[in-house]
Design brief:
The protein has helices at 7-13, 21-36, 63-67, 71-77, 120-127, 154-157, 180-230, and strands at residues 43-50, 54-56, 82-87, 92-99, 110-116, 135-140, 143-148, 161-167, 172-178. By secondary structure, the protein is of the alpha+beta class. The protein folds into three domains: 3-116, Beta-Lactamase, CATH 3.30.450; 120-178, no CATH class; 189-231. The protein has a five-stranded antiparallel sheet, with helices on both faces. Strands 7-6-9-8 form a four-stranded antiparallel sheet. The radius of gyration is 31 Å and the shape is elongated. The termini are far apart.
Length: 231
Amino acid sequence: LAKLVEGDRFKDIIADDDITNADYNYLRGEIMKTIAFNSYNSFVEINVYSKDKCLYPRNGKDILNVLGDKIEKVENLNGNTAWLNYDSQRDVLVLAKKVLLSNKDYRPGGYIIAYVNVDIMDFIKNDFASMKGAKVVLSNEYGDIAVKQSEMSETELEGGITFHKKLTNLGFNISYRIPKEVLYEGVRDVQKVMLQGILLISFLFLITSYLISYYIAHPFKDLIKVMKASK
């Protein structure tokens, strides 16, 4: 993949009379962004398509044979990454993005199809390490991409609370179900911290009030003594 995006070699690999130098540079940038957009990804293969043919590799399948009816999803995301499915035969995740070429004369545009060899569960475990007991699911409209099972049983999870987040720019949804016990434990920890803070503030307030009253009252006592003495 490093060789694929190297200078003039890139033009030799992806040769097309309809692509200008500006488009070559833009396309190379899009490929590099696709490779780099997530540091945990380990890319096995990248295919580059125009609308009507495979530019790289030369013996690549027709785009419709690769995407099928999912091409509509890639079109709708309009340049954002679409996580499509898990290919169990190759043990890879398939993702795609539409390439919006800058050259108006090259109207067909194209697609980047990437095959990712990754244990995406590492990403989930690292990012959600503090959420003990949570069940985390990455999914899209075609089904689950990856699931981090909870340390608790399904019965314990039944009464839990589920949070959902749609990550449009990455092309998938993420949801996590947290057991009430874990959630309440976190709330109790916050309450403890707040209570300790209130007690500390109250203690400081009492000390400050005493010191203020002492330093205000002390001069008046001396003044009263002087006045009594003068009488």
